[in-house]
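Sample entry was shown:

___
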Amino acid sequence: MAWVKNWRPGGVRVFDGKTTAPGVTDDVNAGYLVGDNWIDETADASYQCQDITAGAAVWAQIDGGGGGSGTMTTVKEGGVQLGGADIVTLDFDDGDFDLTESPDTEVNIVLNAGGHNIADHGDTSATGTELGTLTDGSDSDTLHTHGAFLTVDQTTPQEIINGFPCYEDTHSAFTDQHCLIDKEYVDAAVVQIGARFYMLDAADGTVGTYKQCSISASALSIASVNASANAETDTLIEEWISPTGMTWTSLETGVYDLNVFAAKTAGNRDVRIFWRFYERKADTSEVLIATSNLSDLITTKARIRAYATLSTIYTPDVDSRLVGKVYFNTDGGSQNTTCVLYYQGDEDSHWQIPVSHDFLDDTYVAIDEFTTNGGVLVASGAGTFAEETGDTLRTSLGLAIGTNVLAEQTIGIADNNLVEMDDAGPANVGEYVRLTANGLEGRTDAEVKEDLDLEIGTDILAQQTIGIADDNLLEVDGSPNDNEYAKFTAAGLEGRTYANVLTDIGVTSGANVTGDNAPQAHQASHSPNDGGDALDCAAPANIDGVQAAAEGTADTLARADHVHRIQHSISDNTIMTVDGTMADNDFVKVTADGYEGRNYQEATTDLFSNVLAENTQILFDPALSADGKWNGISRTGTAGAILAFGDTVYFAVGDSKWELLDADAEATISGLAGICVVAGNEDAAVTIMTYGVIRADTAFPALTIGAPVFAGTTAGDIVVTAPSGSSDCVRVLGQAITANSILFNPSPDWYELVA
């Protein structure tokens, strides 16, 4: 049988892509309707649903079983649910089959060719007579029917519902078989002039459980919503509602198209999308208008379409809104399956409905309503517009010439004219304006100086800095008056009156500092040596000790050559001086002569040349603060291996380097032992402690306070249990003083275990 893939006439749904025959469970619960067609592409068989009772569905094979004579099945257009009594199957052979019916009869036609397809024949052209009557005379050309075409022999125009509508009035006048079209073509044509409702992510302002729709495509970012199902069922993904304020005289017959982007993102069940179209009334009740077919199988993200058909005009309430609810159907599989729906932006998911001219007239303004060049459409009532110009338009806008708009003005640089910009590009902020014959022109600083023929340094000063500093310009601060004096301030020059000046310099008006009684030279009269009015001078004295600074109270002055001596002493509260020459990083030694500088060698000689006094001690920190801390007696040296903090080492006499201590090797256990406190790579400088305390949380095992620690059989490790293997060496390296620190005092004794 020859099928047109995805041919979905109004009122009949076709489920193609099936691989088995339908069964009793392909029923109402699985979403099927009486009249649905099922295509088993594996067995090349087709079936039609006659009964959708749950668990007892009935499907009839309608392709004649393949081969032999063809069949034609007619289904009466009695409504959405069609019973078995409404289905009639007529047998016909390979000859012509004539169908005569009255023009007002409506039937659904399912056609099939019993033996083979039209494509099985050659491309021999049909004769004019064959094309005119849709009959086959040669049995070998492209019109060879075998039941695949009907002979339409009515003498009046007749449309076969869901079959082949005819363009021409006289059916016998066909000269081209393309005069026939099928319902899919008509549906596609109708959809192209439909109204689109683009899905948005924002919630509706009136019914918050629904998302908004827009009749224009959105430039918003792509959004998505998903739902999951773990059974063979229908699952709601999301609901959208039409914009408020839209009214509907009627909903036209035709295809109601869901056009979305969707993907299956998880699970192994088959996923198909479908949608339901509702009227939502003002009282919040909802009426189902139509349900679509199931879409093609969904896998990765792709554009998916599902079609609902309306066979009769539907009239909603005037204040109702339209609602689209998108579902996905899961079939087969066993895993929880997720379906994602994408919308907004580049993913222009929408539903589309056929519309009448009334809807277009109510929503848009026809171009032919503009009749005057320069006219403007002005709202003249609810949903109506009127074209206005000139005085009428100004009146509608509340504008009056001479009041809130200027009368028509003359452009040009003349008295009472308007002046317009004359510039190759727009003038910039901060530019100056120059009048030209063509209007106003923007001019930069450099252009203005060129226009005025000004030269910096000759005609005008260069830019100067303002402020009371060398070579700066000063500006006036305040509002000085004539004959006032100028006073420097941080803000510039301030005007001061005569009285202000006297106050500023602390002179009383009339005092003997005027020009008529100028001060006379009298320094010699105050000389402390021989002046008649000698000044008292302080006597020189020693600076004997440390004391606080203080202002004296005596009415005496110090002479310019007056000297105070520092009295050196090494007693309490006295001043000491440096004895000799001291160098950077020297230590200080106090002597009877003052401070004496001592270098490192001199200082260590001074410190350690004497016997440690009785009852004095060398103190180690009893509780080291953190991992990696230590104090004790140490020495610097060269690493014979990569040494880390806490590694135990011995001094290798062969190369004078510090190597890792290993209880497995007698050669390493017997020498001078130490522990690394400043790490380093091989041949790098390191610091080795030979006696002291060390904390190594990472390097040490868990310690028992007071218990000995031993050299380990892993090079560089400390262990809490003495080695016990044959040829292992045992040497105590110290005792634990906390759970993570030890006193490192290696025993000079060691012994080797013999099996």
